[in-house]
């Protein structure tokens, strides 16, 4: 289609492709040097030439040109400098339909130029005709508008280029900062740790210092202290002696003021009485003596609730449960029988330990107990003495009921611990005549079964051997209502949970305690009693407690899993090749004192013991690869100090009490911090101090975090290498906080 822009002297050829691109224009700009009138005349003549039938008789091209000019003036006015799109054209077309009909003779078809159905196909009543108004071209095709659009586009490109350059410069600065921080280091901002008490503390709208009520009101400046009961009363929670002094002073001032007003002279007897009152105010009365005396100076009936609270705090005893009896302060207050007290005195136990103070009164009431205490705290006596008191109430064992099994069962994870408990039990049962039998691996099961069938009140066993005896019918537990699980967490770790559950299921269930916590137990009735002692509370121990214990009282001494304060802990970072030299140096410093060297494998234990023996040390070994007889010989020789060094695996790490161990050396660091706690617990027992030294290498990173926390809690020195190591900063298995990945700088070679 050929159009003419009369106002600018330009011509346009518009080609529209209906088949491939809808509403798409191809514009070819043709500059014409002719004048406007010539262009207009030529266009009209061209149109009239193609359509001579549009020229009436007697009309000339000039007259037709004038009519078209008039139509142009009418039709061009509504379209001047407007947005030009198909929708607006349709609205304009409808608005000027009348004008269109009037001047339709001035419109020419352009089918020959390929413009069929151009623009108004949907709304045009003449579907086969395209309509073009003379010298009217869409606004976006006008040259000056195109120039402006081009300039705006160039400006937008320039702005985008500047933005990209600024972004590139910023990224380059970040890259330089990252390189500087990598090579020069930088201070990382530390977040301020806010305590929960401060974080959630209620905040008023103003500070306390802004309170001016005391300055403005004279009543606040001269407070009046009320004299209760005319000076003879006391306020609770305040020092009684101080209140007495204030009352005596107030009375003296009042008397002096009255005498001065009345002109009365104080008599000598009044002065003496006032002096006596002041002296009495400065002395203790019976109530003051009851409050101000320490709990250790009071009789049992004089103990107040405050005294018991201080007592529990002094020994770091905490309870969890209902209807908890008072702890015992001494053996005389324990309510144990005279035979047991004589046995305690014979064993040399002068004062009960905290776990014994708390657990023995609970056992005497037949309460189920979960004891959590640090190693070396005297847990064995805490459950043996209540167990012996329980058996003393039962009928003596005779030939009639010997075949029904023992009265009580104690389970321990290792043979050595079971034999140690057997020795302690025999010691305390000396005056009672009870028979104690141990059932452990490494010995003939037939002989052990024969001992049980011949009758015994107490069986001390490992879970695996005891369940074997029950399955082979060597033993039954038909009258066993007292069971103790010592080192329960260790038994679970060793995989004895099914065996422990099997033993507990084999016990009679007719004497279970009531499930109601508030219901009191009948002291004359025999209930099934379960004691469970553990240094920690893993999930397996909790499962056993929920299933087999009824309303247990949880007794915690100190912090669960914590080592005693009597142990001095030292950690040394070194290479693997330096360990043996450092071990010899530590053993030389001990002299004749005993030491236990812990390793992780039996092979390593034998190798170290062989090298130490060549170096002249009196050394023996103890591990699971030795027979029961060899293990007993090694342990007995070390206790008798025929050997000063014991190289052992974790067989010795739990529960075994070897007196006067001066030093524990972790030659190989254990894989779990709980085992570390039990290893070093072989020293610092029975109130004596001890030393624990651990050799640490870079292969022990899995315990770095927990070891660092334990050293900090015990106020022990933390090696700089351990404190700075990345593994000591985060708990294993946790994902440390890090910035989002989209903020990381990526370097491209």
Automatic annotation (TrEMBL):
Entry protein name: DEAD-box ATP-dependent RNA helicase 21
Domain Helicase ATP-binding positions: 360-555
GO terms for cellular component: nucleus
Catalysed reactions, semicolon-separated: ATP + H2O = ADP + phosphate + H(+)
Family: Belongs to the DEAD box helicase family. DDX23/PRP28 subfamily.
Molecular functions per Gene Ontology: ATP binding; hydrolase activity; RNA binding; RNA helicase activity
Residues in DEAD-box RNA helicase Q domain copies: 329-357
Chain positions covered by the region annotation Disordered: 721-749
Key words, A-Z: ATP-binding, Helicase, Hydrolase, mRNA processing, mRNA splicing, Nucleotide-binding, Nucleus, RNA-binding
EC number of this enzyme: 3.6.4.13
Domain of life: Eukaryota
Entry's localization field: Nucleus
Domain J: 23-88
Annotated Basic and acidic residues bias: 738-749
Presence of the UniProt keyword RNA-binding in the record: yes
Segments carrying motif Q motif: 329-357
Organism: Thlaspi arvense (Field penny-cress)
């Amino acid at each position: 289609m050929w159009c003419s822009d009369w106002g600018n002297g330009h011509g346009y050829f518009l080609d529209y492709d209906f088949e491939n691109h809808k509403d798409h224009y191809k514009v070819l700009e043709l500059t014409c040097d002719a004048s406007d009138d010539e262009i207009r005349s030529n266009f009209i003549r061209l149109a009239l030439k193609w359509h001579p039938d549009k020229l009436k008789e007697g009309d000339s091209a000039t007259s037709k040109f004038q009519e078209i000019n008039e139509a142009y003036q009418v039709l061009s006015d509504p379209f001047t400098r407007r947005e030009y799109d198909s929708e607006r054209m349709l609205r304009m077309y409808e608005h000027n339909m009348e004008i269109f009909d009037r001047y339709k003779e001035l419109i020419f078809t352009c089918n020959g130029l390929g413009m069929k159905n151009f623009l108004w196909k949907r709304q045009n009543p003449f579907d086969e005709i395209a309509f073009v108004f003379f010298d009217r071209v869409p606004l976006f095709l006008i040259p000056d508008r195109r120039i402006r659009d081009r300039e705006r586009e160039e400006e937008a490109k320039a702005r985008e280029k500047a933005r990209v350059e600024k972004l590139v410069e910023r990224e380059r600065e970040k890259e330089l900062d990252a390189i500087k921080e990598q090579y020069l280091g930088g201070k990382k901002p530390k977040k301020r740790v806010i305590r929960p008490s401060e974080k959630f503390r209620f905040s008023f709208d103003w500070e306390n210092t802004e309170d001016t009520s005391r300055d403005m009101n004279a009543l606040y400046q001269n407070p009046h202290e009320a004299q209760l009961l005319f000076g003879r009363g006391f306020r609770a929670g305040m020092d009684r002696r101080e209140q007495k002094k204030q009352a005596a002073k107030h009375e003296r001032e009042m008397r002096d003021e009255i005498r001065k007003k009345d002109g009365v002279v104080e008599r000598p007897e009044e002065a003496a009485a006032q002096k006596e009152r002041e002296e009495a105010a400065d002395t203790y009365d019976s109530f003051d003596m009851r409050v101000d005396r320490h709990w250790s100076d009071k009789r049992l009936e004089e103990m107040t609730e405050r005294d018991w609270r201080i007592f529990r705090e002094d020994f770091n005893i905490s309870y969890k449960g209902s209807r908890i009896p008072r702890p015992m302060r001494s053996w005389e207050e324990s309510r144990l029988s005279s035979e047991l007290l004589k046995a305690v005195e014979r064993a040399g136990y002068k004062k009960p330990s905290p776990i014994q103070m708390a657990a023995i009164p609970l056992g005497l009431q037949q309460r189920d107990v979960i004891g959590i205490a640090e190693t070396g705290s005297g847990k064995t006596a805490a459950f043996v003495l209540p167990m012996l008191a329980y058996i003393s109430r039962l009928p003596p064992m005779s030939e009639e009921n010997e075949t029904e099994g023992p009265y009580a069962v104690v389970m321990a994870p290792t043979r050595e611990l079971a034999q140690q408990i057997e020795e302690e039990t025999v010691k305390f049962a000396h005056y009672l005549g009870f028979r104690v039998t141990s059932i452990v691996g490494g010995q003939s099961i037939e002989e052990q079964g024969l001992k049980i069938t011949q009758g015994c009140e107490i069986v001390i066993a490992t879970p695996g051997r005891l369940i074997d005896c029950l399955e082979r019918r060597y033993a039954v537990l038909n009258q066993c209502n007292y069971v103790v699980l010592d080192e329960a967490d260790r038994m679970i770790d060793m995989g004895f949970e099914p065996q422990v559950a099997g033993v507990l299921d084999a016990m009679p269930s007719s004497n279970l305690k009531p499930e109601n916590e508030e219901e009191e137990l009948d002291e004359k009735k025999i209930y099934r009693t379960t004691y469970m002692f553990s240094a920690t509370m893993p999930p397996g121990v909790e499962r056993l407690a929920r299933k087999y214990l009824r309303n247990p009282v949880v007794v915690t001494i100190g912090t669960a899993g914590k080592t005693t304060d009597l142990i001095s802990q030292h950690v040394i970072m070194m290479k693997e090749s330096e360990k043996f030299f450092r071990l010899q140096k530590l053993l030389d410093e001990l002299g004749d004192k005993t030491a236990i060297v812990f390793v992780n494998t039996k092979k390593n234990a034998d190798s170290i013991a062989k090298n130490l023996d060549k170096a002249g040390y009196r050394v023996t070994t103890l591990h699971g690869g030795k027979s029961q007889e060899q293990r007993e010989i090694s342990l007995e020789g070390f206790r008798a100090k025929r050997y000063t060094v014991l190289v052992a695996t974790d067989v010795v790490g739990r529960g075994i009490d070897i007196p006067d161990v001066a030093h524990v050396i972790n030659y190989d660091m254990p894989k779990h911090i709980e085992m570390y706690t039990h290893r070093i617990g072989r020293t610092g027992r029975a109130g004596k101090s001890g030393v624990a030294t651990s050799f640490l290498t870079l292969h022990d990173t899995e315990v770095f975090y927990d070891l660092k926390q334990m050293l900090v809690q015990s106020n022990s020195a933390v090696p700089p290498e351990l404190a700075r190591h990345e593994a000591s900063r985060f708990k294993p298995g946790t994902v440390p906080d890090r910035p989002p990945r989209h903020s990381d700088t990526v370097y491209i070679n």
